[in-house]
Design goal:
The chain has 105 residues and is α+β, with helices and mostly antiparallel strands. The protein is 28% helix and 30% strand. The radius of gyration is 13 Å and the shape is globular. The N and C termini lie far apart (25 Å).
């Protein structure tokens, strides 16, 4: 289990990516919320934004057009977790952070 700060560095979350088919994420107060993200969805996200710089889009209901957050809402069967996935992508070396933008490699 890994522990990271969210994109805005206000809170922490934990995740386990040791399973070959999914990443399990625990977040919220006392880490009471859980999301299971299939690895294929994570790979789909990386492929979609490869080589691009986009707004992270952490708003839960109205992320900016073209942002990673908007893409998550439209394409993944999960809650809007751009503020978590952005931090994981940076940790895993797939992207870097520049203010409110995420730069994919």
């Amino acid at each position: 289990m890994k522990r990271l700060k969210t994109w805005g560095e206000r809170t922490f979350f934990e995740y386990d990516d040791s399973n070959d088919s999914k990443t399990v994420i625990y977040y919220g107060a006392d880490l009471k919320w859980k999301v299971e993200l299939p690895k294929k969805d994570y790979e789909k996200l990386i492929k979609e934004f490869a080589g691009k710089t986009v707004p992270i889009g952490t708003s839960l209901d109205k992320p900016p057009t073209g942002s990673m957050g908007e893409w998550i809402i439209k394409n993944l069967r999960t809650s809007q977790i751009a503020y978590i996935l952005g931090a994981i992508l940076v940790e895993d070396g797939y992207a870097t952070k520049k203010g409110s933008e995420i730069i994919f490699k």
